[in-house]
Design a protein that fits this description.
By secondary structure, the chain is α/β, with parallel strands linked by helices. The protein has 10 helices and 15 strands. It folds into 2 domains: 82 residues, Gyrase A, domain 2 (2-Layer Sandwich); 286 residues, Purple Acid Phosphatase, chain A, domain 2 (4-Layer Sandwich), CATH 3.60.21. The N terminus is likely disordered. The protein binds manganese (II) ion.
Amino acid sequence: MKHTRDIAEKQLKKIDKSANGQPTIEKFTSNEAGKDYILNASTVLTEDEVFNLLGLDKEVWECYDITGNKYGTSWQTKCRFRRKSLEDMTPEDYVKRFIELLDMQNVKLPFSVEKRETSQSGKMAEICVFDFHFGQLSWGDETGDGDYNIEIAASLMDQTIDYFIDNLPDVEKIILPIGNDFFNSDNAFNTTYSGTPQAESDRWKRTFFSAENLYIKQINKLSRIAPVEIKIVPGNHDRTRAFFLGEFLRAWYRNDENVEVDNGAEERKYVEWGKNMIMYCHGDGLHKKALPLLLVQERPEMYARTKYHEIHKGHIHQGSEKNHRVSQETMGIKEIIIPSLVPLDDWHKGKGYRHLCEATMNVYDKERGKCNISLFHP
Ligand SMILES: [Mn+2]
C-alpha cells in the first residue's frame, strides 16, 4: 500500500491552498479502514470544513469522531474517518472506492467501454467533412485564400465537429465517413496515390500521428452523444493511408462498443438506416453514369428493403461541376457531391478553381428519409 506521507503532503498542499496557509496537519495516520487527522487552525473546524479541506468524499468516508481543543492561541481539531461499510454503499459509491484504490496502486484498466443507452428517435446523423487534405500547405499570400497546415486543419476540424454537435438533434446513431482525401498525400514521397506531387506542411509521419490524435478527439466527443459508425472511404489522394488510418481506428476502438469502424476491403461503403440507403464513394475514376446501377447491383437486397437512395461523393470540392449537378437524380437515386472545407492550394489557385468552404451534416429519419441538412461555413 502506497503510504501516507506523500498522500498527507498532497493534502497539506491542498489545505494551504484552500485556506491561505491557515490550517496545517499536525498528525496523520491512515490504513485501509480509516484515517485519523489532527489539524491546527486559528479556529475549531466543523465536520463540513474538514471534509472540504481534506478533499474527502462523503460517499466513501464517514467522520465518526471530531473534537476541538484550544492550545494557546490556536485550535486543534482531532477527527477520525472510517470507510462506509460495503452494506451502506450504493453501487456508485462502490465504483468510486474501487477507482480510488486503483489510483492508489497506480493500476490501469484495459480500455473497455460498454454500449450506452441510446435515443429511440428513429434518427441518424451523418457528418461529412470530405476532401479535408490534411497535411496540405496553403500560403495565403500566394493563393489569396486562407493559410493551411496541420495545426490550422486540426483546429478547423474541432470547430466543425463542435458546431455540428451544437446543432445535433436527438439521434440514435452518428455516421462519420473518413477518407475521401482526408490526407493530402499518400506516401513518404508527398504525392497522391497515383504520384502527383503535393505541397505538404509536415513530414508524413508527423501528419499521420496528428491525424490519429485528431480523430480520437472528435470520435470521443461524438461517441459520448450517440454510437458512432465510421465508414472508411478511400480517395484519389489517400487511397492507401485512409486504409491504414481505418486500421488504426479499428484497433483503437476495438473494446469500445459505441464505436464501429467499417474498413472493409471494398472501396465503396454502404449504410442502411430504416428506409434509407446511402452509398459512399469518392467519385474519381468512375464511369459517370455507372453509380446508380452500381448501387442497385452491389447491394440488391438493401436496395429492395429501402425507399430513399443516395450516393455521397467528394472529390470536386464544391456542389457542382460541368458534368455533375448538386443533386443529380436517376430514377429516384440521388448523387450528391459534398463540398470541402480546405482552402485553395497553389495548384487550384493556378488553375483558377475556387469553391465555397463548407461541411455538411445530414439527418435521416428511418421512415421519412432525409429530414434536415446543416451546413458549416468556417
Ligand atoms: Mn479527390
